[in-house]
Amino acid sequence: MRLDVVTIFPEYLEPLNVSLVGKARARGQLDVHVHDLRTWTHDRHHTVDDTPYGGGPGMVMKTEPWGEALDTVLADGYEAGHGRPALIVPTPSGRPFTQDLAVRLSEQPWLIFTPARYEGIDRRVVDEYATRMPVHEVSIGDYVLAGGEAAVLVVTEAVARLLPGVLGNAESHRDDSFAPAMAGLLEGPVYTKPPLWRGRDIPDVLLSGHHGKIARWRRDETLRRTTAHRPDLIERCAPDAFDKKDREM
Ligand code: SAM
Questions:
Q1: Superfamily of domain 175-248
Q2: Which intervals hold domain tRNA methyltransferase TRMD/TRM10-type (predicted)?
């Protein structure tokens, strides 16, 4: 998968060199290109923003640098034969970023991110590129960040761990919170050695070796935790997502 990020803070994307994403890059599973938006400015001050039409506080990112940047990135990716890109626009006014979208994005060959600063990017930029490729305006939560770079890191990590061969054990995201095998519900608590720590032991069933009982315990914990923290996820489930024992909970 190819990833392009256009930003005025390329150094903010340094974490893409470490941990899971960094390893995926080193193995050639991810081809990441971070670009400085100011490369496509032509004045002495490398200006990327201007005052908003209609007045009001804050500044708006200008169309011209974004247009030149995206045209260059697109030409480069097409020349390298990367297939059809999708444009990912981080914005608090976007659709919530979910595991479902992470799965869909992980199936794409090429993602281009446009993290903004100030009050965001002149709307015409998104409208222009939406005529050429799918655009996903995504919010990583109901709060406002100073810029979209942290959102790019969030989306990239969620997507990268789903790529074939990126996680050591391909099964390990099967039982994650929100996964289809979990009916979109939350994962319960997990434990490891030692069996006793500061007077706290672990549930006996996990030492029983009885796979059926362990699976039932995990399912009960999933239901308990989801009911406590995210009852909306339970409400969204199809009725046939629950068996008789679930209903007895
Ligand atoms: N005026 C904008 C609004 O209220 O919708 C907020 C602009 S914010 C200060 C600057 C940039 O940070 C946004 O354009 C976006 O790229 C990024 N950003 C802020 N909060 C975000 C969120 N919750 N999810 C994704 N991106 C976000």
A1: tRNA(m1g37)methyltransferase, domain 2 (1.10.1270.20)
A2: 1-235
**Ligand 1 nearest atom to the CA of residue 144, by list position:** 20
Is 144 annotated in a binding site? The answer is yes
Instruction: Give the tokens for residue 28.
Output: 């050639």
ipTM of the complex: 0.99
The closest residue, in CA terms, to atom 17 on ligand 1 is: 148
CA of 144 to the centre of ligand 1 (A): 5
Start-end of CATH 3.40.1280.10 domains in the chain: 2-160
The pTM (predicted TM-score) of the whole model is 0.96
What's residue 247's pLDDT? 87
Note the residue count of the chain: 249
Are the C-beta atoms of 246 and 219 separated by less than 8 Å? yes
End-to-end alpha carbon distance in the chain: 43
Q: Output the ligand 1 site: residues, CB below 6 A.
A: 90-93, 115-117, 119-120, 139-141, 143-148, 151
Q: Specify the residue for token string 């095998």.
A: 181
With 80 as the cut, is the pLDDT of residue 71 above it?
A: yes
Count CA atoms closer than 13 A to 126's CA, side-chain side: 18
